[in-house]
Amino acid sequence: MSDAPAAAPVLIEKSLPTTEMVDCMLGASRWNIPIHEHGFIALVDCMPRLVPQGQTADCAIVQSARVSYGEGTKHVSEDRGLVRYLMRHHHSTPFEMVEFKFHIAMPIFIARQWIRHRTANVNEYSARYSIMPDRFYRPDVESVRKQSKSNRQGGEGPIDSGTAEEFLKLLDDAESHYQRYIDLTERGVARELARAALPVSVYTEWYWKCDLHNIFHFLALRMDPHAQIEIQDYARAMYELIKPIAPVACEAFEDYRLHSMHLTGLEIEAIRSGAPLATENKRETAEWDAKKARLGL
Ligand SMILES: Cc1cc2nc3c(=O)[nH]c(=O)nc-3n(C[C@H](O)[C@H](O)[C@H](O)COP(=O)(O)OP(=O)(O)OC[C@H]3O[C@@H](n4cnc5c(N)ncnc54)[C@H](O)[C@@H]3O)c2cc1C
Fold first, then answer.
1. Residue 157's pLDDT is what?
2. Computed from CA positions of residues 268, 271, 274, 278, in that sequence, does the dihedral angle turn out positive or negative?
3. How far apart are CA 231 and CA 227, in angstroms?
4. Which end of the chain has the least Cβ crowding within 10 Å, N or C?
């Protein structure tokens, strides 16, 4: 007789959908948006992927939020109100119930900014394991911008064409190292070391999975005009990909986050009293001036 305990009976209750379920990605394995000459962002999966006919992935936000109240399913119009309430009041966890997985190709100087967003799951192309493909970021001559005078981190307006051409020549020179990189790896230099000779304009690729709450955080920072234009291009494309899948949450994000404005205590006091902002700080004053202009004050 065996001493092994008897296996516990496996009981799985499977509830069949009462309405027809539809695929949020309409049966496609990939929704791809090309970015610049060599880059792309592709949506490759999402959760929930299957939703009841007539609904969107927003239903997962509502489903998880309603557990708090123990209420049954409500009408879609009430669902929209609930999603908007959650967004307005920073109730973030229901938005974490929706997830998106992307396949992205971007230059390394953009990947460095992107990877700072720590709440995603990432798996990147290995330049230790494989040769880096011959793909480099090279803007058009009209897109070579000047250093901004007002924003030390940014650029503004095109630089004169002569200087732009000189810069593009410098990029081309860096790219010309590529064949030497290949030759030296063929002669036995380890790929993990040889890659050090490549410029940061070379493209890398990764899979990036993140929940909707943290995607909104990413988008709010990276669709903002203060972000580098090249990463803004990716962020806008990402937003285009997720919007049809969770349109109610995206609408709430636009209304209560993207196009909203945060007022500080000093700013509220300045509006209330009609007095200037009570600070000597020039940057804070400039920010207040920009907000007043937006408010039409
Ligand atoms: C315009 C712009 C300019 C920037 N300039 C610079 C720069 O000059 N130098 C530089 O180094 N970085 C810079 N950054 C990067 C920036 O400081 C953040 O690292 C990046 O935007 C990621 O933001 P996050 O940490 O909020 O996001 P995520 O890492 O996605 O985190 C989301 C949220 O999760 C929480 N969280 C995540 N991890 C932790 C943790 N370990 N502990 C506690 N809370 C956590 C936080 O609330 C956080 O806001 C810049 C970013 C932007 C948008």
1. 87
2. positive
3. 7
4. N
| pLDDT interval class at 18 (50, 70, 90) | confident
Please identify every residue annotated as catalytic. Answer: 222
Handedness of CA 196, 201, 206, 209 (dihedral sign): positive
**Atom 39 of ligand 1, nearest CA residue:** 118
How confident is the model over 149-202, as pLDDT tens digits? 877 778 888 899 999 999 999 998 888 889 999 999 999 999 999 999 999 999
Residue identifier of the C-alpha nearest atom 19 of ligand 1: 116
Q: How far apart are CA 27 and CA 52, in angstroms?
A: 15
Q: Is residue 98 part of a domain?
A: yes
Are residue 293 and residue 208 in the same domain, yes or no?
no
**Residue 81 identity (one-letter amino acid):** G
pLDDT tens digits along 105-124: 999 999 999 999 999 999 99
Tally of domains in the chain: 3
**Would you say the CB of residue 228 lies under 6 angstroms from ligand 1?**
no
* Cα 137 to ligand 1 centre (Å): 25
116 lines ligand 1 (CB under 6 A): yes
Per the document, the length of the chain is 297
State which residues form the domain around 284. Answer: 263-297
Q: If you measure from the C-alpha of residue 228 to the centroid of ligand 1, how many angstroms do you get, rounded to a whole number?
A: 15
CA distance 221 to 118: 14
Best mutation site among 221, 231, 257 for ligand 1 pocket (most ligand atoms within 8 Å of CB) = 221
| Residue 181 resides in a domain | yes
What are the pLDDT digits (tens) for 208-249?
999 999 999 999 999 999 999 999 999 999 999 999 999 999
Are residues 79 and 65 in contact, defined by beta-carbon separation less than 8 angstroms? no
